[in-house]
Amino acid sequence: MLLGVIADDFTGATDIAGFLVENGMRTIQLNGVPETSLDIEADAVVISLKSRSCPEHEAIDTSVAALNWLQQQGCQQFYFKYCSTFDSTAKGNIGPVTDALLDALNEDFTIVCPALPVNGRTVFNGHLFVMGELLSDSGMRNHPVTPMTDSSLVRLMDAQSQGATGLVNYQTIEQGAQPVTERFSTLIQKGKRYAVVDAFNQSHLETLGEAAKSLKLITGGSGLASGIAKNWTEHLSDQSSAKEAGKPQQAKTVVLSGSCSVMTNKQVASYAAKAPHLALDVKACLEQENYCESAFQWVLKNLDADFAPMVYATAEPEVLKAIQTQYGAQASSHAVEQFFSQLAHQLKENGVQNFIVAGGETSGVVTQSLGVKGFHIGPQIAPGVPWVKAIDSTLSLALKSGNFGDVNFFETAQGFYHD
Ligand SMILES: Nc1ncnc2c1ncn2[C@@H]1O[C@H](COP(=O)(O)OP(=O)(O)OP(=O)(O)O)[C@@H](O)[C@H]1O
Ligand SMILES: O=C(O)[C@@H](O)C(=O)CO
């Protein structure tokens, strides 16, 4: 095993796993840290955690446990995967986890690279843009759990970490890998522990991948995965069979959407025009004990429709705000997550095999309640969203990050089935 990835949520994990597979690395995704060593044939292992917005000490403990396990499996380089929109609070968890991983590896320096240009996440002079808008002007400012109101990665990183942050700007990156590594050395001499790196096209990411070859720890979104995978090319064998193993089969399917992102709102609206759909009632979800049962019965009745039935909590920002004001942000999001967790479990027990899920946190609770230990990575439905197939059952999942995929994503995903 060459590369060990620690991902702070489940959709983020499948996102990077998909890009590693695309770039020739046989990749397995494991949900949580395994209790024992596993006999796995893979070049890269991605461990998915649910550490993005949990208490800091929990995020640190699980991330360091993941690192220890990956070290025991012989991984030689480590990648802390977080969101391409840098989802975090003023306290973390990106900074604290990065610090803990550096300490555990006895390292003093890493890079901060959320860029994913193929999905419109670019970094220019240290500022993060989403589809051409500053992060703080984008829909991320209204995120239910980690609203992002600053776009300066240097400032964000400084606020939530122990060390100091420097910048490698695009002018240096466009000069090639050697000047970038020299800039890393300069920053280290100046006492910087992290370098935010500009990147707004694929060529920047290739250069950064090359420059980061000797770093033990890399941190970022999935964009840099292609550059990092290229460093291992000479060690890789044939990858085609691994991708086959992840293909979904024609089977009973449900769409569960717990994301309130701008793109998911569009996808839900578009899919609702074609497919049976049920909007979750947050009040009932909080107050009625058997609320999930009625949703479960509704899904069962609609499983044979032309398009899979969709249950969604997805709401526009003003509706979400009203819910959060009335019931509390934490209580309502917890209730929604519990609902999806319970519903997914009941549906699995009743023969549903394919789960198309929107939202990272939502995907985390659904995957956990389905009891899936790990995945083979299949074909990409959209950049950063592959179909994945459980290593230990016949379940297939499409775990969609909030803002990924185009407007027809839910329908497109169902076009990948084979008999
Ligand atoms: N109508 C709602 N009312 C209150 N909370 C909600 C509602 N809909 C969704 N949520 C909560 O908002 C959170 C959305 O986070 P999630 O990670 O699933 O989506 P996302 O942030 O859009 O996706 P990603 O992390 O992949 O970008 C979840 O905790 C979910 O339970
Ligand atoms: O990087 C991204 O944007 C996604 O993989 C993600 O982490 C969303 O949860």
UniProtKB/TrEMBL annotation:
Pfam families named among the record's database cross-references: NBD_C, SBD_N
Domain Four-carbon acid sugar kinase nucleotide binding: from-to ranges: 254-410
UniProt key word Protein biosynthesis: no
EC number of this enzyme: 2.7.1.217
A GO molecular-function annotation: kinase activity
Family annotation (InterPro entries): 4-carb_acid_sugar_kinase_N (IPR010737), 4-carb_acid_sugar_kinase_N_sf (IPR037051), NBD_C (IPR031475), NBD_C_sf (IPR042213), OtnK (IPR050007)
SUPFAM superfamilies in UniProt: YgbK-like
The keyword ATP-binding appears for this protein: yes
Protein origin, superkingdom: Bacteria
Annotated Four-carbon acid sugar kinase N-terminal domain residues: 3-227
Catalysis performed (reactions): 3-dehydro-L-erythronate + ATP = 3-dehydro-4-O-phospho-L-erythronate + ADP + H(+); 3-dehydro-D-erythronate + ATP = 3-dehydro-4-O-phospho-D-erythronate + ADP + H(+)
Enzyme kind, highest EC tier: transferase
Keywords attached to this entry: ATP-binding, Carbohydrate metabolism, Kinase, Nucleotide-binding, Transferase
Entry-linked NCBIfam families: OxoTetrKin
Family listed: Belongs to the four-carbon acid sugar kinase family.
Known role: Catalyzes the ATP-dependent phosphorylation of 3-oxo-tetronate to 3-oxo-tetronate 4-phosphate.
Protein name listed in UniProt: 3-oxo-tetronate kinase
Source organism of the structure: Photobacterium pectinilyticum
